Amino acid sequence: MFQGLRTVVYGVEDIEKAKVWYSSILGIQPYFDQPFYVGFNVGGFELGLSPTTKPGTSGPTAYWGVANADEAWKHLIDQGAKEHEPIEDVGDGIRIGSVIDPFGNTLGIVENPHFSFDEK
């Protein structure tokens, strides 16, 4: 059955501009870089950019783990993202929020002290 999140693909109209923006917010360069798809390895998971996928905020939201939701939120906003759902504590120390990237996609972040990459 399911083994966990592997890839989230965001639709973008300008893949070169999106590649630069995501490289900036992630602090890494893509491991796969072609005109039809750009892929970033983010902590063992893939964030993909596709010029053939329609951008938008109507689908499911993937939440990317962060160590500090406030710092990540500020970084995203400083880099040109727009507020979508402000950071809020949803209980048990878990804090979530989301932004709209410059290409119209919802980008979620989650600070979850109960989740560790070391867990099997």
How do the helices and strands line up, and which of them pair or pack?
Blueprint: E1 7-11, H1 15-26, E2 32-34, E3 37-42, E4 45-50, E5 63-65, H2 69-78, E6 82-91, E7 94-100, E8 106-111
InterPro entries: Glyas_Bleomycin-R_OHBP_Dase, Glyas_Fos-R_dOase_dom, VOC_core
Protein name: Glyoxalase
Pfam families: Glyoxalase
Explain what the structure shows.
By secondary structure, the protein is of the alpha/beta class. The protein has helices at residues 15-26, 69-78; strands at 7-11, 32-34, 37-42, 45-50, 63-65, 82-91, 94-100, 106-111. It is 18% helix and 38% strand. It has a 4-stranded mixed sheet with strand order 1-4-3-2, with helices on one face. The protein is globular.
| CATH 4th-level superfamily | 2,3-Dihydroxybiphenyl 1,2-Dioxygenase, domain 1
**N-C termini distance:** 16 Å
Helical stretch count? Answer: 2
Strand content: 35-45%
Level-2 CATH architecture: Roll
Number of domains: 1
Largest sheet, described in full? 4 strands, mixed
What kind of assembly state do the chains in view correspond to?
Answer: single chain
The whole-angstrom Rg is 14 Å
Instruction: Give average pLDDT, whole number.
Output: 88
**H and E string:** EHEEEEHEEE
